[in-house]
Amino acid sequence: MSNVRTPDPYPGWLSPEDLHEARQRLPMVYVEALPVRVDTLGYVTEIGLLLTASDEGEMVRTFVSGRVLYRESIRAALLRHLEKDLGPFALPQIPPSPVPFTVAEYFPSPSPSPYTDDRQHAVALAYVVPVTGECTPRQDALQLSWLTPDECLSDGVQAEFVGGRGNLVRQALAHVGWGR
User: Fold this and answer.
1) pTM score, two decimals?
2) How many Cα atoms sit within 13 Å of 149 on the Cβ side?
């Protein structure tokens, strides 16, 4: 969420001014998804990370993320953002029961939460979503990299995440039993 923006295909739902005003008064609800490749037993073999430039021109790693629209189901929001960020042929496998592996609270200022977003207070439902198709990164991403779990946990890659997202990757891997 912090400084990593994707062009909104539904820009009319709130004007930029109304969105700014809402962000000053209300927590925003987001979905975040770590796209993964799995082997025949269902073990995670790779994680898809987007590489993009922050507003400050720094190269940062991120993953699928976006707001839940008014009257939109969590399942529909996940599918919409996965298709928007990974392309129409990613073939995400939305879980039958969309229960997040964690709920991340982002704050614009220091808080007990490890997650920050300088724009707003946001609540993000975080998921691990297998994808089986061809993925092409979103318009504002420079590339989509498929990294092994060990590579994602390396100090170098962890340092490239913003807003505490490296913590989410560690939590996601623990959730799927990595390090067994």
Assistant:
1) 0.86
2) 19
